């Protein structure tokens, strides 16, 4: 299969490109190397993808370009059977400072790809959506029928992109699936996230920083589970036209998470508290029944198992990964 992975130099896209290349597919990555965090981490993701292609008999091509470039996007989508759209301006808090960039990349960029899918034809368009589309919880866990009232410009941009995708799929009759990821973590994860932050600070004898009082809860999803859900969509049409939650169904409050990581890595450190941002979700918790029913999805890691696996990976990869996460 010819698979276009937008944002394929990033954390999640990097894992998808690696898996597809290892499975023998012909992978094209489109990424503009946005300097949201250390670019050496993205270069590393590209190297991992190239290596997987060599080992797995697939192919890997990197296109350094922007989803806002409609002409380029049209060319690339024209050669693809499947599009896995992971490119986005991520980050909830910075979206409050600069909402227009989120709109340009996450909404207009997605529309460029959808226009190309409409014009050239495609087997399936799969996009990374987010639990941020739900906003304030009316009930938990969130199922896909939960009202969508995002509280951040980031969440609003992901919801707009997802709704455009589903409406294009409906009107122009091509298969679309939006996977709503609940905070994803694991090897090569983004530096500016709670788990990478807590671990890197603790191993460097710096106190973990909690925003707010730490009572906010999160459903953290291990990267392998996200990859499996995406891989299932190469074969399955069961979720076409739908938004589907991808989470762990487990959840933990941030203070407990920080305490457990601290206790394991640096028990002498105190926890440090800083002000919570209004755009941060108070609680996230996924109901993944739809993913289970349609895609056979089942989370493989509880949060404690996944964090233990991440710490083990961190320690084995500390030499190259740590400077990149500490500097970002
Ligand atoms: N990581 C999470 O917890 C999480 C949770 C929910 C949803 N998501 C979504 O999953 C996707 C991947 O997230 P991630 O954590 O891997 O983030 P990431 O920042 O590591 O990856 C995104 C990639 O997109 C690229 N990109 C940004 N703007 C671009 C543009 N204009 N043109 C081309 N490429 C561009 C970046 O350079 C980056 O490599 C995003 O769509 C994000 O909204 C992530």
UniProtKB/TrEMBL annotation:
Entries under Gene3D superfamilies matching the protein: NAD(P)-binding Rossmann-like Domain
EC id: 4.2.1.47
Superkingdom, taxonomy of origin: Archaea
One example GO MF annotation: GDP-mannose 4,6-dehydratase activity
Span of domain NAD-dependent epimerase/dehydratase: 3-247
Keyword Metal-binding assigned: no
Record key words, sorted: Lyase
Key word Lyase present: yes
Family listed: Belongs to the NAD(P)-dependent epimerase/dehydratase family.
The protein, known as: GDP-mannose 4,6-dehydratase
Organism expressing this protein natively: Haloarcula saliterrae
């Amino acid at each position: 299969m010819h698979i276009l992975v937008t944002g394929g130099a990033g954390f999640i896209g990097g894992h998808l490109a690696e898996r597809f290349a290892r499975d023998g597919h012909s992978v094209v990555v489109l990424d503009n190397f946005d300097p949201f965090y250390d670019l050496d981490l993205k270069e590393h993701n590209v190297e991992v993808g190239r290596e997987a292609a060599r080992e797995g008999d697939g192919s890997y091509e990197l296109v350094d370009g922007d989803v806002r470039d409609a002409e380029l996007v049209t060319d690339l989508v024209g050669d693809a059977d499947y599009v896995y759209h992971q490119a986005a301006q991520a980050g909830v808090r910075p979206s409050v400072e600069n909402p227009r960039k989120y709109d340009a990349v996450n909404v207009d960029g997605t529309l460029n790809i959808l226009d190309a899918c409409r014009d050239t034809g495609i087997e399936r368009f799969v996009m990374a959506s987010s639990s941020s589309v739900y906003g304030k919880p009316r009930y938990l866990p969130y199922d896909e029928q939960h009202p969508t009232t995002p509280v951040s410009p980031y969440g609003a941009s992901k919801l707009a992109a997802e709704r455009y995708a589903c409406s294009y799929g409906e009107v122009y009759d091509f298969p679309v699936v939006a996977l709503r990821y609940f905070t994803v973590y694991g090897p090569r994860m983004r530096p500016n996230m709670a788990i990478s932050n807590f671990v890197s600070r603790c191993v460097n004898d710096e106190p973990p920083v909690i925003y707010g009082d730490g009572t906010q809860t999160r459903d953290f999803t291990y990267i392998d589970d996200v990859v499996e859900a995406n891989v299932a969509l190469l074969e399955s049409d069961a979720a076409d036209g739908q938004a589907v939650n991808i989470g762990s169904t487990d959840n933990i409050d941030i203070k407990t998470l920080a305490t457990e990581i601290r206790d394991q890595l640096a028990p002498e450190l105190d926890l440090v508290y800083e002000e919570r941002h209004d755009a941060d979700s108070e609680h996230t918790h996924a109901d993944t029944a739809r993913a289970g029913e349609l895609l056979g999805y089942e989370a493989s890691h509880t949060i404690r198992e996944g964090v233990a696996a991440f710490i083990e990976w961190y320690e084995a990869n500390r030499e190259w990964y740590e400077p990149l996460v500490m500097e970002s």
